[in-house]
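Listing 4. Sequential folding, example run.
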Amino acid sequence: MATLTIAQAVDWLVASVLPNINKDISDAVVTKTKLPSWLKAKGRFKGGQGGDGSFFQVLLEAQQTLGGAVSDWSQKAHQTVNPPAQATDSYRQFAWPIMLSKFREERYEGAQGAAKLLDQTKEQMAVVLSEARKQLTRWLHGSGSQQTGDSATPPNGIASFISTSSTVHGISQSSYSAWQAQVDTVSNALSDDDGDGVCNLLQKMGTMWISCSGAGKTDGVQEGPADSVTNPDLVLTTTTLYDYYVRAMEAKHQIVNAWPEKVGVVQGVRFKDAQIDWDQFCTANKMWFLNSKYLQFLHMGKDVVRLLESQTVTQPWAKLVLYGGQGQLITRNPRFLGVITNS
């Protein structure tokens, strides 16, 4: 490539190089840690959104008296059903800047500036990717509260929904039991307090599984008749609780999934028909029971993270390239989600 001037090198980078690697950046942010990569694999990132936020209706009260058996002359009188509630949540903004020093660029004048500039950008891009990946994953595990580096409210996390007393998408869980998630605690996880041969943790997990599958609540309304029972497809927890589960199951010889040439080596662990895994970003002492059908990350544009803007700034004198996006994690039925807290 011919030698470029400072201005040409910067313009070439912003106009030609960064857009080409934009999808790689976005994919790397959402596919390198377990919770966002699971949502991505399940097709639960949905782009191309518009407006100020997500708006949808939910039925929170049962309609048992709406209809029933009738005879020729005993039809029921017309009546008003319990109306649906309006669920709303605003999209949240997030951004990570890359700054390209103008003085550093000037030193590359006449020395294959484009290649040098790209090297500089790659170094900073690695930092941005690492920070964006960590922050997005922390948000998705969190409760929508600000964390280190935030200057405003971040997107919702699973802890925003998996509760019995939060306000989820503007609807109080305290007011509507059908809008509550499944919540339980376990003590002495590896002990067998009732002496039935099953440790406390496995007992709680079995109960939580049934509750999250739709049997835990009898009030409220499902999304459709076929959804009356739908099982969790991921159990995500800390390294400690993951180790407790593996130790409890190994004693019963129920989780061997070996390569043919390495019989007895545990490769993967499942609980019933769900994957169970640990995440370094998981909240301490938590074991989350998640159903991808009822979690979705809605975002602007095609990519979760994309090139937003570039401009020359002063103090310092630099080319500022801003990456970021707008989005929000939502749930349309928290009752199919759950958590066990190890106390």
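-- end of first protein; second protein begins --
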Amino acid sequence: MTQATGNDHPRVIAAINQAIDLAANDQMSVAVELLTSLSHEFPDAASVHGYLAWFLLETGRHEKAVGPSQRAVELAPRSERASLVHFHVLWRAGERIQALDEMKRFLKIQPSEEYANIIKEWKPGANWRHDNK
């Protein structure tokens, strides 16, 4: 990713690392606040939106995570990580068709071992919960 997006900016890197540390220390809400603020300052940094979406997802705010995860995919459409975050966000938000559409979109770009594993776990007709939660 290029510096023009902000992903390589030292403040972005430091803030993401700080958010990861906060989350690891059960301060997920503080991590969300930090990344929300950072997303306004660096609106084109896909990594900020992706981490924000993931932390929102982890705090149970599935619907609120959709916007940032979508933005991460828009900014980095070839990023497997952004695609997987968006897939999981959509799935947990109950947007199953959109989640599968995201999987298909990404798999047209390149193969993914993670998506392959998700597909292997799926049994048609079953109440599939790929995230085991």
